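Obj.: predict assembly geometry.
Materials: sequence records (below).
Method: joint structure prediction, all chains together.
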Amino acid sequence: MRDALLRRLDDEREGLIAFLQGFLRARSANPPGDTWEAARHIGAFLDAAGAPWRVASAKDHLPNIVGSFDGGRPGRHLVLNGHIDVFPPLDEGGWSGERRDGKLFGRGAADMKAGTAAGVIAYAWLHGVRDELAGRLTLTAVSDEQTGGRWGTRWLFETMGDQVRGDCCLNGEPSGLNNVRFMEKGTLRLIITIEAPGGHGGYPHLSRNPNKVAASLIAEMDRRFHMREAPLPEAVARALTTPEAVAVLEAGMGPGAAEVVRRMTFNPGVLRGGLKVNQIPHECVLEADIRIPVGIDRDAVLAEVAEVCAAHDARFAVVEAHSYPGSMADPDGEMLRIVQDNAEAATGKRPVPMSSLGGSDSRYWRWEGVPAYLYGPSPVSMGRGDEHVTEEEYLAVVRVHLLSAYDYLRRSAPRQAPG
Ligand SMILES: [Zn+2]
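Observations (raw structure tokens):
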């Protein structure tokens, strides 16, 4: 059966590429949302395979596609997760789905229509051989990830619970074929406000200058928070510091990434203060983003933020919608090894376990103790005007997701009863 799936990947290569091209042509920019065109494209593919699915939406314009089926025997529950929505394209060319020089171009090609397509294909094809499988396979293709996920995966967890939680989750967010992502940092997003009476620039004895206070506050936060090392669990620290892991990290995310991945970072992203050069501002507002690795307690960081703000007589607010804890799965977990085996067979190179620098919906599973892993195409072009995947990496991602889901649901088959 496994060989038959491999043969089918070869036989239907052109069809799989056409499926992704159609998906890339279907508009699904978020903001503003409205991903129906792309959701219908997925639905048509699932219908053609006879695989069950339905739309579960909190918002009419943001359809989440959810489907589930049982194998021939009881076993474990695997969930495939991906998002349909993409960043807005730079221009209409972002919806071309153009095929050129062995590449497929379009907004979301990397983040993450190739990976979501892999999940959809795996779900549809495995439905065709479901009698061979044990347990349950669920597909969740959501329409709200790029703007925080309130109406996507988070909403599915709130409203469907066990139906989407499962025992393991596989996601095709961009990673690069040479690594599998098992953890990501959390974020703490802050708005800090410094106020003063303000006044004439020649009268500094009558008011403090909020811009000067902000400069001091930024320096203090930078000194305390930026590049603070996280006390990572030993297995995680080991996985992230092998020479192979460091080489992959720095090749994929730039020199220095291997250090950043294990440390907290502080980014003062927006600073607004003052109206005129010869005035003392009455207010300065700082928007800052602190990225917190697993191993550093968010509440302790927040207490330090409060301390620094108090010392500068500044107010702060946490932007809760964009603040959440880090998350991780076992860097030696079963599904991670299954993905490594299948990726090695597909590409000739064994991917290393790796941490993400950005966020993904896999955190919703990990927070509940369910192992979740990301394996997808190269992230390098995501969000750019020339966003693309190569045909070869797309087909490799499809193959790895299909066979990894198959292997996971085969292994969970109970032993044959004697006699
Ligand atoms: Zn994404």
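Conclusions so far: The pocket of zinc ion is lined by residues 83, 111-112, 145, 173 (CB under 6 Å).
To do: check interface contacts against the pulldown list.
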